[in-house]
Amino acid sequence: QKEVEQNSGPLSVPEGAIASLNCTYSDRGSQSFFWYRQYSGKSPELIMFIYSNGDKEDGRFTAQLNKASQYVSLLIRDSQPSDSATYLCAVNGPGGFKTIFGAGTRLFVKA
Amino acid sequence: EAGVTQFPSHSVIEKGQTVTLRCDPISGHDNLYWYRRVMGKEIKFLLHFVKESKQDESGMPNNRFLAERTGGTYSTLKVQPAELEDSGVYFCASSQGGDQPQHFGDGTRLSIL
Q: Is residue A41 predicted with pLDDT exceeding 90?
């Protein structure tokens, strides 16, 4: 079992729809959770971070964390073609230091 | 505020040669991380500095890789001698706190021929 698992996709949604990206992690002691967006050939760009159970909203983005289920998700409302990218889920282990990345989910937003 | 900068952006060397990658973190960020992404795989943690000290180097592949951060500012990652499987994109990231969001540089694309 991978430490951080994501569906590789591609996930295709029409413009204006909600895109839902999911991630599960294996280490129950994980403490902090991040979503990065990576355009082809570019570096990862931080989108959201969440530390506590529940939802965290920032603009069109909502991160959801459920530590009991070891599950973290990212919702993108009103998806735009410019949101088309690979979304990386990253998890910090106990102590908050070593970051483990998932392989990423490719998102396509169709105009 | 300047972001994380990495140099060079690309490096092409022959097997057996030595290459040194450099990372300048965001000013004031004590935490500096090195990652590697090989073709088709996920980004893998290599090591983590807190100031000039190695906090965790469990991800370093083998002793051909040497990372330093003298003075707690910029860091270098040296590969000596380079092997074909070392090809990939090497990312550097920095953060203020150990569990704070990390900011990534643009990466160095390393190709070993």
A: no
Shortest CA distance from A34: residue in chain B: B101
Out of A32, A98, A100, name the one closest to residue B48 (CB): A98
d(CA B105, CA B102): 10
- Helix, coil or strand: residue B99: coil
Please give the structure tokens belonging to residue A42: 């570019």
Could you write out the DSSP letters of every residue in B87-111?
-EEEEEEEESSTTSPPEE---EEEE
For B14-46, write each residue's pLDDT tens digit: 999 999 999 999 999 999 999 999 987 889 999
Q: Does an H or E element contain B10, and which?
A: strand B10-13
Q: Which one, of B109, B68, B61, B113, lies nearest residue B89 by Cα?
A: B109
What is the DSSP track for A60-102? TEEEEEETTTTEEEEEESS--GGG-EEEEEEEE-GGG--EEE-
Going by C-beta distance under 8 Å and a sequence separation of 6 or more, which residues neighbour residue B89?
B36, B37, B107, B108, B109, B110
Determine the Cα–Cα distance for residues A24 and A5; give it in Å rounded to an integer.
Answer: 5
Residues of B in contact with A31 (CB under 8 A): 99
| C-alpha span between A9 and A106 (Å, rounded) | 5
- Phi, psi angles (nearest 5°) of residue A39: -80, 155
